[in-house]
Design a protein that fits this description.
Number of strands: 4
Shape: globular
Largest sheet: 4 strands, mixed
Number of helices: 4
Radius of gyration: 14 Å
Structural class: alpha+beta
Length: 136
């Protein structure tokens, strides 16, 4: 596994609204897979009221094609290191999105650092290798 330290020379561009792992996924989508933000996918897409409405969510990547796919980046500290409440919430969000016809795939931060293109390709093929998806 590649340590986050391997990315010490990699930074998200100034003004990037998210985390480095989110940027790496965004970069993979736009560079390796030639997808266009705003056309084939939307970054930080609020659904069901976003963070403003009770029950609303913000998904990291929501795809227009295929229209039933979304990807969330799972940071090790926030999603796994803060106890089971956050993980349980992530599972509930997945179930909530399934009820809306959206298949939510999680990509773990450590997997992004290991091989971002591989895990993005897997996610685009509806394969979830995350801890919550039964992976490592």
């Amino acid at each position: 596994m590649v340590s986050p330290r391997a990315y010490t020379n990699v930074e998200a561009p100034p003004g990037w609204p998210g985390s480095l792992p989110e940027f790496l996924v965004f970069n993979s989508l736009t560079t390796t897979f030639n997808l266009q933000q705003g056309v084939e996918f939307t970054y930080q897409s609020p659904l069901l009221g976003g963070r403003i409405e009770k029950g609303g969510v913000v998904l990291d990547f929501v795809f227009n094609e295929p229209p039933d796919l979304a990807i969330n980046v799972q940071g090790e500290y926030y999603h796994y290191g803060k106890g089971s409440t956050v993980s349980q919430n992530d599972v509930m969000v997945r179930q909530q999105m399934a009820g809306q016809g959206i298949f939510l795939i999680f990509i773990d931060e450590n997997d992004i650092y290991e091989d971002v293109d591989y895990y993005v390709r897997q996610a685009l093929n509806y394969r979830d290798h995350s801890k919550l998806g039964g992976g490592r």
